[in-house]
Amino acid sequence: MRILNRDQIKLLAIIAMTFNHIAHVLLVHGSVIYEVFEDIGYFTAVTMCFFLVEGYQYTRSKKEYAKRLFIFALISEIPYVLALGFFQLDVIFTLFICFLILCIMDSGLETWKKNLLITGLTLFTVICDWALILAIAAILFKKSESQPRKQAAAYGIIAALFWVLNVPGYAAQIHAPYPFLSGYAAVHSFYAVLGIIASGVITLRLYNGKKSEKYRIFNKWFFYIYYPAHLFVLWLIRITA
Questions:
Q1: Measured between alpha carbons, how far is 17 from 38 in angstroms, rounded to an integer?
Q2: Fewest CB atoms within 10 A around its CB: which of 32, 54, 57, 98?
Q3: Residues 128-186: pLDDT tens digits?
């Protein structure tokens, strides 16, 4: 039953993202509530990437879309670094790079040039939030557009890749000598993957392919404004608490 429109799903993604950032900025690392809030947030980035690919297809001006992403990536960077306490390019930068990858995929360049540029941009995301994963997701979503089975397979690949990349990190927290043999790390990483699985279920089974008929301007700009604003507020809460 396809009961959710694009803007309703984006709102769910924004709420999930907020839980994740509350965990990282305000909660004690490793606590149960920290882990729950963090894992909820893994729903967001892949969902936004899915809609980025859809938006790329239907936007009236790819130039304006790219410019909007880049400007808000710049605006968001300082609140992002302040809130999280380390340097990394924020996720809007990652989505901007994903957008460039989509443009290259549709360009008239020779195949080898396309592959070289896409590989380079994908590797560049190692200094970004959601390194590698979102770039690969954008490619998979682009290649599977309007093909439900291939889209489901794309989500499966993204979830599996995310699981594999997270196991060593979780294993390191308990100093496990053989990361992929650590039951704790494997199970913990699976919990993190649940957000991506939820994204796949909701976008592929509940999304009705429409956007909200109400508050169109608000819906267009809300995520862009909310992202840096909520990070700045969380930073203020942390330094004044």
A1: 9
A2: 32
A3: 999 999 999 999 999 999 899 999 999 999 999 999 888 766 656 655 454 444 556 66
Strand partners, 4: 207
Is residue 24 within 8 Å of 36, Cβ to Cβ? Answer: no
> Which residues are CB-neighbours of 15 under 8 A, at least 6 positions away?
none
Tell me the C-alpha distance between 225 and 198, whole Å.
25
DSSP-H helix ranges across the chain:
6-26, 32-40, 44-58, 62-84, 91-105, 111-124, 133-143, 148-173, 183-201, 216-240
Phi, psi (5° rounding) for residue 59? Answer: -65, 145
pTM of the entire structure?
Answer: 0.93
Query: Please, which residues have CB within 8 angstroms of residue 6's CB and are 6 or more apart in sequence?
Result: 51, 54, 207, 209, 210, 211, 212
Closest CA to 109 of 96, 120, 125: 120
How far apart (Å, rounded) are the C-alpha atoms in residues 73 and 94? 9
Distance of CA 89 to the CA centre of its chain: 13
Give the gyration radius of the chain's Cα atoms: 18
Amino acid at 230: H
Q: What one-character DSSP code corresponds to residue 89?
A: B
Strand partners, 89: 128
